[in-house]
Design a protein that fits this description.
single chain; 280 residues; Arc Repressor Mutant, subunit A; D-Maltodextrin-Binding Protein, domain 2; 6-stranded mixed β-sheet; two-stranded antiparallel ribbon; 9 helices; elongated
């Protein structure tokens, strides 16, 4: 077994077929197939099953790729570490939180001597977990509540991630200052039933991976947005609402109100790989 074969397995799994993987790897399909066959014989397992619908990992394949990604990730870091012009990078994958731009700006100033690239990726829950597990991001920031805790903690365990809580926060409802409910000090779920909910667009991983802490009520009208700016603009243009952590630091704070929702708490925290030592 060698590093090249590890890269082959990862690429085939991502591409979904040997032919597409061969194109991405710039190798012939027969050579790619022969290399994987040799690896399977050496390990005594079958890594892929082929069918008319594509190529899929077997259970042994899933186990193999988990370790292969870790190995290749470390090899890539090692190769980059000794490049003559190497400077480290720092990446944060997060839900669409307004407050993160300020701490990331401070971090970029503090570590400018040792780090060249800083990145804040606002994305879906599933992608946050995958990015941290594959070392694409150093830290992932998300929340747990009673609805998603079980499935997310199970996912953290499977991906070998640590979740560190930063604090308990009441779920807050985002409203324009002209909204009929804007005068209230505390809201209940029943108060919201007559209004459209604005939510962030998610992938196909299911409702429990959403970044919006509220569920969708039966027959409720929903507007989906794929970025924070669009969500806030729609919030101001319609008598609708959104839900979230409620820590807002940007200019939009002047145009909206944030009202706590009764009996709704969630835990903000960050995830890091168990197998990777955290940097300063």
């Amino acid at each position: 077994m060698n590093f090249q074969q590890c890269r082959y397995v990862i690429t085939i799994a991502e591409a979904g077929s040997f032919s597409e993987a061969a194109k991405r790897l710039f190798v012939s399909q027969p050579n790619l197939s022969a290399s994987i066959h040799q690896l399977e014989e050496e390990l005594g397992v079958t890594l892929f099953t082929r069918s008319n619908t594509g190529t899929k990992l077997t259970e042994d394949g899933f186990d193999f790729i988990k370790y292969a990604k870790r190995i290749i990730g470390e090899v890539d870091l090692l190769q980059g570490r000794y490049h003559t012009s190497f400077k480290k990078s720092f990446s944060v994958a997060s839900h669409h939180y307004d407050f993160l731009s300020h701490p990331l700006a401070k971090i970029s100033e503090r570590f400018s001597d040792t780090h060249r690239e800083f990145q804040l990726i606002e994305t879906t829950t599933k992608t946050i977990i995958e990015n941290v597990a594959s070392y694409k991001s150093d830290v992932g920031i998300l929340y747990l509540d009673e609805a998603n805790r079980h499935i997310l903690e199970r996912s953290f365990k499977q991906k070998e991630l640590d979740f560190v809580p930063l604090g308990d926060f009441p779920t807050r409802i985002f409203l324009s200052k002209d909204h009929p409910l804007a005068h209230k000090k505390l809201l209940k779920i029943d108060d919201l039933k007559a209004y459209t909910q604005i939510r962030f667009s998610q992938d196909d991983s299911g409702i429990l991976f959403d970044e919006d802490p509220l569920s969708v009520e039966a027959d409720q009208q929903i507007i989906y947005a794929n970025d924070r700016g669009s969500l806030m603009n729609m919030l101001l243009a319609t008598p609708s609402y959104a839900s979230g952590l409620g820590i807002v630091t940007g200019f939009i704070k002047e145009h909206i109100v944030l009202i706590p929702l009764e009996d709704q708490l969630h835990v903000l925290g960050y995830i890091t790989p168990k197998t990777k030592k955290s940097s300063p």
